Amino acid sequence: MNAIKRALISVSDKTGIIDFARELKHFNVEIISTGGTAKALREAAIEVRDISDVTGFPEMMDGRVKTLHPRVHGALLGLRDNPEHVAAMNQHGIEPIDMVVVNLYPFAETINRQGVTREEAIEQIDIGGPAMIRSAAKNSDAVAVVVDPAQYPLVIQELQQHGGAISIPVLQRLAAEAFQHTAQYDAVVSSYLAGSTLMPARMTLSLTKLADLRYGENPHQVASLYQSQMGQTQNGGGLANATILSGKEMSFNNYVDADAAWQLVCDFRDTACAIIKHTNPAGVGLGQTSADAYVKALATDPVSAFGGIVAFNTRVDEAAAQEVTKIFTEVVIAPDYDAAALELLQTKKNLRVIRMSSVARAEELQFRQISGGMLVQSADVHELSKHDLKIVTERQPTDEEIRALLFAWTVCKHTKSNAIVYARTDQTVGVGAGQMSRVDSVKIGAMRAQLPVARSVLASDAFFPFRDGLDEAARHGITAVIQPGGSMRDKEVIAAANEHGLAMVFTGVRHFKH
Questions:
Q1: CATH assignment of 6-194, given 3.30.499.10, 2.60.40.2550, 3.40.50.1380, 3.40.50.970?
Q2: Residues 5, 14, 248, 278: which is the catalytic one?
């Protein structure tokens, strides 16, 4: 192990850097630094050598050029056990640098600011920092590279245990994390520069680990939670960045179901509540209050609601909290909670209570892994109004039926295909999800309904391939149907609706959810 004798420190995030530098001084480490970092260290009475003393060149071009010099990169890349490298270093006055402490310009934070210009963003693209990180990481058997304040305690511990040196395994671990750091940084920059290019020729996923989970979908599977690049650059939005106010740790399945519930309620402007089981809606309700919406959602299927995920798109009041706590619930998710509601929910030790930062639908790209690759698509954010509906039957739907059809259509979008939803204007009546046959979904939705199906409307996420689905639904007393249309047998399906006296509208849009 090589002792750490010289360290180059140049950080944008100065969290903990003063204490870290003082610890380095305890091991008689010479510190070289740049610009603002050198100023901060000197103000803390820490002796620093300017980078310009090492390179023989002043920092220039508004700081764009300061460390891009052979006396910096030769000092990092030179192999200490290679006679030719050592001779070249001696010939050109290059002194080895044993540690680089660098974190990069705050590019992600900059582009996230309201009204930031392209010129401002470009100036936050770090060049010298990534170059030094990569040089140091390439020579990781001799050079320590530190890119995150969270790594400072580990480095100091190593110096203490090894008399001012760092063990090879830790050097190699730091190098791996350094390359991950620069790769993530470049991914954010390239995504920004690509601008509106929705599906670029190359795509880099930038993910930051937030937590290990107890296990995956099943106990024998390993799982972790990662924050996406979008979550890093858009005000920490999304479920991965939500605040868990109380309750047990979230599981893999909790996150999957909670996100499904949250995405569903975010599609409503009225006060909404959704109860989710295995990513499918067990019940959805609209109301004047969060309590009213919950009661309507629960009435759809109170049996399946047991152990479910409950999401609200509005502040949760005490009355809603009282209703939620009457049965076992895994997760409650909402933008906020009244003080009395939160206090009541927190009396349930196993209930996870989550607060979201905003009510917003996910409009980022969606990824689905397949063997050997990745499928990528834009989010399904299509909105539908009554003006978009094409009435195809002899009977016109009433205004009340149109409201119910649009409500059912929104819920259907968040239900696994083949999806059928029976509903009224503000409440689901029955849900048939994930069946191999659409007519089976029609049957199951009616069979599982706890509320009267008669006088409700029906939504289908895709067209009816045969009239049997309409015939089955009509048998249960529905009055209107919303579906995309587009089947070879649309005329037969329309004829069936007319025979049963149903109103039917086509949307021209399909909402498969696989």
A1: 3.40.50.1380
A2: 278
